[in-house]
Amino acid sequence: xxxxxxxxxxxxxxxxxxxxxxxxxxxxxxxxxxxxxxxxxxxxxxxxxxxxxxxxxxxxxxxxxxxxxxxxxxxxxxxxxxxxxxxxxxxxxxxxxxxxxxxxxxxxxxxxxxxxxxxxxxxxxxxxxxxxxxxxxxxxxxxxxxxxxxxxxxxxxxxxxxxxxxxxxxxxxxxxxxxxxxxxxxxxxxxxxxxxxxxxxxxxxxxxxxxxxxxxxxxxxxxxxxxxxxxxxxxxxxxxxxxxxxxxxxxxxxxxxxxxxxxxxxxxxxxxxxxxxxxxxxxxxxxxxxxxxxxxxxxxxxxxxxxxxxxxxxxxxxxxxxxxxxxxxxxxxxxxxxxxxxxxxxxxxxxxxxxxxxxxxxxxxxxxxxxxxxxxxxxxxxxxxxxxxxxxxxxxxxxxxxxxxxxxxxxxxxxxxxxxxxxxxxxxxxxxxxxxxxxxxxxxxxxxxxxxxxxxxxxxxxxxxxxxxxxxx
Length: 473
Prior knowledge:
- With about 475 residues, the chain is of the alpha+beta class.
- The chain is about 25% helix and about 25% strand.
- Helix 8 runs parallel beside helix 9 (about 250-270).
- The two termini are about 35 Å apart.
């Protein structure tokens, strides 16, 4: 199974903050001049220094340091990155530059640029990226193979895994004994899959005898025919911009609906039995600026939303009903306070639960490698709103080497008021934020978690501005 560190590092590069340069697609004749404008010096390692404390005047910043580790061992790169080009070549060049950087040198073995555009490209197009020619393979397709090209390129790779960049499937679906479970998804940062998975998927399409049009729209069929409940990942929502996307307007949406419905019907012919999901869904968000992964089971949507449908033709109607039943306020909250904002390094953004905290809620950090030594003292640290302090006093703080066996910290929670003010526009007036921490002297642990053990009568909400691990120096 592909390592979680590989997934994280590929996704971190995919959503890295790039300089705000507007690379508008003019015409093909202006292509080289567009590429000359790319700020190559700015396309560097996405890691950046982050604050270890937001307290002022207490000498906290001088004796604490945020934990930010990359795996200490070197591994053999075993991933082929596949990038399609059609109308946004400047973006493709930027992506290749990042994928070819030292940040991923022990992950990415080869980068395949599949050019669907009739205007041929060459290694010279990517010369300023510094990517060695033996690592970059360019294929000028004789015809526009659309999205099936991703899977063909992956099938032809020599590595065990593929990273398919800029995947744009718009629906995630699973059919179970309860019916069809489906919801919208935007997989704009791609996916990692085994090379054999791409081969199996293409073989399945041939077995189903899909049409050429359906084969070209392979992205619409991949996630649906996989028929797995997805992991939900949040990021900071950074867009490259420029050019014209393939799916745009009413015509593009209708085309997607047709292929999604067709995929569900194909899936219906393949299924005999399936399991029904149990337990709370786990949402995940990669940290911005350092290697770690936030995980939480705090509900982000109300439980009354209907997740199942017994008719393929009803899935879009059911989705529309769910959106309408949510209401605009709930949609705005979902968009404004995602979990990714608890790990973006910014004290002016926050993750806020839409519902009061309840027993069983947890937030955790996977540091992707074990941290600490016999002489190290760590602190699990959160920057939170005052109402969340009430929750943290009822929380068990624990750490683990394997996310199975947990060791509870016996230290007392310490909360101190900062000079930072909470976000405006909420029901209560803005108040000073609290920096709360708990010591942990366990060595070699990788996972750190805060778990709520009881229901709280005052019904406070989680509101986490930052969540990180630091060591005392």
